[in-house]
Structure formats: C-alpha cells, structure tokens
Design goal:
The protein has 173 residues and is an all-alpha fold. The chain has a domain of 121 residues. 77% of the residues lie in helices and 0% in strands. The protein has 6 helices and no strands. α1 packs antiparallel against α2. The longest helix has 30 residues.
C-alpha cells in the first residue's frame, strides 16, 4: 500500500467538502435562475451525490488501497463523504434561510398554503397544517432535516454503491 495514504477521515472530509460545495453551487444556480422547488431538476442533486461518491471511492481504491476495496471500506468511505457534504449543506441551509434569503421562507409558506387550497382542504385543517409548516420552516429546523435526510440518503446510497465499487483481493494473506 501507498505509504503516503491519507486517513479515511481526512480523505472523506476533503471530498465531502468538495461534494458539499458542488451541491451548494447547484442549489444557488437553481435559486438564481428561479427554478421552482417542485421541479424535477431538483433531483439532479442526487445524481451529483451518486456520481461524486463513485468518483471519490474509486479514487481511494486506486490511489490509496492498491486497487482493492472491501464492501465495508467502500460503504464507509461513501457514507463519510456524504455525511461531511451533508453537514456542510446543513450549514449552508441555515445561512441561506437565516441571512441570504430569509424572504424565501414566506414563499415556501405561501406555496404550501396555496397547494392546500388547491386540494380543497377545509379552512380548519389548513390553519393547523400551516401552524406546523411554519414551525418546520425555521432555518435551524430545516438544517436538522437536511442532516437527517442526508444521513439516511447517505446510508442508502453508500450501501448500494458499495456493492458495485468493492473489489476484493483474491490473494490469501
């Protein structure tokens, strides 16, 4: 193995930062171009996560692990990379909604209310739902949900990708 091999955590942190920056950049492009939140193009963020996870895990396998990687190693590298990207994305979410574009919270609330009226919900149900929606659209709550969603997504993405990214040595050691 390569003597100058970085630690798993350092490698994951560095690449997680790169992935986080890519996701933040993508989010900003969508915001600045006015793409609606419910547009299918939002799902490209998952494609970015998957592609970058593949690239970074393969990079670790080739450059730092003699071309081999167990399922466990592939899973842990992928998960840690996504976890660090998720933490950076959560920090961005907080800063974005608290300082950069706090008016977007009102847009989210209005869109939610409009959808409820479009579904012909009774006024009492809308009032209750809007109370809950308002509680969930605070910057710090949204950041927590980014971490929860990113962690669950990272577990799933890493578990599946590790099946394809593993390459175990056939040598007996």
């Amino acid at each position: 193995m390569n003597e100058s091999r970085p630690s798993n955590a350092n490698f994951a942190l560095t690449n997680g930062i790169y992935m986080g920056i890519a996701l933040i950049f993508f989010s900003l492009v969508l915001y600045l171009t006015g793409v609606p939140r419910d547009n299918y193009i939002q799902y490209l963020s998952y494609v970015i996560m998957i592609v970058l996870t593949i690239v970074f895990v393969k990079q670790w396998r080739v450059k730092h692990n003699d071309g081999y990687l167990t399922y466990r190693q592939a899973f842990s590298h992928g998960f840690l990379i996504i976890l660090f990207a998720t933490i950076l994305s959560a920090l961005y979410t907080y800063v974005f909604f608290a300082f950069i574009a706090p008016e977007e919270l009102q847009v989210i609330l209005q869109e939610a209310e409009d959808k409820m009226y479009d579904q012909n919900m009774p006024d009492e149900q809308i009032a209750i739902a809007m109370k809950w929606t308002a509680m969930m659209t605070k910057p710090w709550v949204m950041s927590i949900w980014v971490i929860i969603g990113g962690t669950i997504g990272g577990l799933l993405i890493s578990a599946v990708l590790a099946i394809f990214l593993k390459k175990e040595s056939t040598e007996f050691e």
